Amino acid sequence: MNQLATRTTAYNAADAPVADAYVDAHDGWSVSARYFHSRIHAINQQLRTVQGGALLDIGCGPGVMLRHLAETRPGDFAMTGLDKLRAMVRTAEAQLANTTGTELITGHAEAMPFPDASFDVALAMGVLEYSNVPKVIEEIGRVTRPGGLVLVTMLNPQSPYRLVEWCLYWPAVRLLGRLEGLAGVPAERRHDCARTGIRAWTAHRLQEALRSVGVEPYDLVYYDVTPTVPPLDRVARKVNHRWRDHPESTLRRGRSGVLGTAYLIAARKRP
C-alpha cells in the first residue's frame, strides 16, 4: 500500500488559504484554538474505549484530527478522511505525508462513496452545521457497522455564547462595517463578518435524528465551556491559559453544559 492513498476531484486554488487558516487556528491562545483544543479532548475521551478498526472522519478538513490520531494512536486505526473541498484534502495530504494506511477522498457527506457498514468508527466534527443534516445522518447510519461508534459534534444554539455571537456580536460588526463604508473608510480597513450559513440543531433534535437511523446515543458532552461572551472572550481566553494544560475543565455534562459553545454526542449503531 502507498503511504497515502487519495481519490480527488479538481483543485480550486481559491480554497487553499481557507485550509491553511484552519490549520493555523488550532495553534496559539485564540478563541478558535481553545475551541479546537477542547473538542479534540472530548473526542479523545470517547475513543479511549475503542481499541482500533476502520475510522472515517467526515468533513476531515485539512486532516488535523487524522494527524492527531496518527501521532497519538499510531497503527490503531485504518483511517479515511472525506471532505468536499479539494484544497482541504490537498492540505491533509501534506499533514499526513508520512502516515501509512490512510485514504483521503474528495466527496460530499450527503452522498458518501462507501459501501454499507464500512466503518467501525464514524466522526463528524464541525460538518453538520454546514450540511443537509438529515441526509448526512442517514449516510452515517448507513456506512457505520452494527455496534460501531458514532461521534458527532454541533455548535450549541442554546448557549449564551452562541446567542450573543449570532444575534448581537456578528450583526454589530456588520453594521459597523457598513457605517465605515459610508464614512469613506477603505474596504480593506472596514470591519466585516462573513455570512456562515450555519444551521445548528439542539442536542435533543440531533439525538432523535440519530435514533431514526438506528444509531443510539449514550453520552452527551458539552465542550468549550465558558461563562464569557463575545467580544469579552477574546481577552479572557488569552489571559486564562488553564484550558491548555487542563482541557478537562472545558467539558461538562448535565445542566451546566449550557455554557458549552458546542456539544458532542456519542452513539452506537444498533446490531
Automatic annotation (TrEMBL):
Presence of the UniProt keyword S-adenosyl-L-methionine in the record: yes
GO annotation terms (biological process): methylation
GO molecular function: methyltransferase activity
Cytoplasm in keyword set: no
Methyltransferase type domain residues: 56-151
UniProt superkingdom: Bacteria
TM region positions: none
Entry keyword set: Methyltransferase, S-adenosyl-L-methionine, Transferase
Xref: InterPro entries: Methyltransf_11, SAM-dependent_MTases_sf
Alphabetized PANTHER family for the sequence: METHYLTRANSFERASE, UBIQUINONE BIOSYNTHESIS O-METHYLTRANSFERASE, MITOCHONDRIAL
Name the record gives this protein: Class I SAM-dependent methyltransferase
